[in-house]
Specification:
The chain is built from 3 helices and 9 strands. The mean pLDDT is 96.
């Protein structure tokens, strides 16, 4: 069902510091920050030869990243994203197999302009999983 790894998302407490670290220290291609109000985050994509890194920074008071950073003040890996061909078929199969889909189970449009869903980390060895339709 899952396809290739789309990105690894890292929550960061200081967006400009993280951008400089990836751009200047690691020499990576770093995109421009983009606000995603529906998800409560500002994202920055770092392009790698085989995948992407997504830097996540809180946007607004109700950002889910705020709570993550309260527990992990230095930041850290927030989720991993896999590609799927049909997000609704993937959702239905996962739910039938007992997996919990977060947010009511309806896809939202993600930072790449494509439908996404998140799966409960307790169902996937402690890892928050994002599925993105390609």
């Amino acid at each position: 069902m899952i396809g290739q790894l789309n990105h690894v998302a890292i929550a960061v407490p200081e967006l400009d510091t993280a951008i400089a670290l990836y751009r200047d220290t690691l020499g990576a291609e770093v995109g421009a920050p983009q606000d995603e109000p529906d998800h409560g985050v500002t994202v920055v994509f770092i392009t790698l030869p085989n995948t992407k890194i997504e830097l996540l920074y809180p946007l607004g008071e109700n950002s889910p990243i705020t709570g993550f950073l309260a527990k992990n003040p230095a930041g850290g890996i927030h989720h991993i994203c896999y590609e799927v061909e049909d997000i609704l078929a993937a959702r239905d199969k996962l739910k039938a197999d007992g997996a919990r889909v977060l947010g009511g189970g309806e896809p939202k449009i993600g930072a790449h302009g494509k439908p996404v869903l998140f799966l409960h980390p307790k169902d996937f060895t402690g890892t928050l999983i994002e599925l993105e339709q390609v």
